[in-house]
Amino acid sequence: MSLKLYYHPLSSFCWKVLIALYENDTPFTPVMVDLGNQAERAALLKLWPIGKFPVLRDEARDRVVPESSIIIEYLDNHYPGRTRFIAADTELARPTRLRDRFYDLYVHLPMQKVVGDRLRPPGNNDPFGVEEARARIESCYGMIDREVANRTWAMGDTFTLADCAAAPALFYGNMVVPFGDNHKNLTAYFERLKARPSFARVLREAEPYFAMFPK
C-alpha cells in the first residue's frame, strides 16, 4: 500500500486521523510505534525529528506528512472519498478549520494537561495548572452545548474535519472532566460521534489498550 500511518492505538491525535481514513475506507498500512522501544522510536525520529505521532508516509508521492490536521487535509486533497473533510469553498472551509483548532487547542490540549499531570512523579504535580485546564474544558463544554443544539455535526449536516477533531477530544475529555447533566446537547452530539462507524471502529481497536490510561 502507498500509505503508511505511524501511530499508537491509544493516542487521541492518532484517532483523529484514523477516523478520516476509516470514513473513506482509504487503504493504508498501520505501523504501531512504541516510543519505549529504541528501534521504533528511532524509525519515527528519522521520519519526523519532532518524534510525535501520527505521521503519514506516502510512498507513491514520496511525502512525509506529520500533524493530524495536515494529514487529513492531505488525504482530502490526494486521496478523496465519499466524505470530504474540508469544503472547497473558502468561506465554508475557514470556520471548519477554526472548529478543528478549537477542539485541538482548547479541549484536547487541556485534557492532555490533566492526564499528563497524573504521570508526573510524586511531588512534581501542578495542581494550579490542572485546575486551569479543567476550567478551560468546562467553558468549552458550554460553548459546544450551545453550538450543537440544532446541528447533527460540528458544522451542520455534514461530517467534517471538525468532527474528526471533536471525537477523541470529547472522549478523553469526558473521562477527566465529565459532561454532567447541564450539557445535554453536547452529550447527544458525543453519542452520535460514538455511533459513527469510523469512530466506533477506532474505539473497538483501542479497547485492549484502555488499561494503560492513567487513572
Question: How would you explain this protein's 3D organization?
Answer:
- The structure is a single chain.
- The protein has helices at 12-23, 38-47, 68-78, 90-118, 127-147, 161-176, 184-195, 197-206; strands at 3-7, 29-32, 55-58, 63-66.
- It has a four-stranded mixed beta sheet with strand order 2-1-3-4, with helices on one face.
- β3 and β4 form a beta hairpin.
- α4 (90-118) packs antiparallel against α5 (127-147) and α4 packs parallel to α6.
- It has two domains: 3-78, Glutaredoxin (3-Layer(aba) Sandwich), CATH 3.40.30; 90-200, Glutathione S-transferase Yfyf (Class Pi), Chain A, domain 2 (Up-down Bundle), CATH 1.20.1050.10.
- It has eight helices and four strands.
- By secondary structure, it is of the alpha+beta class.
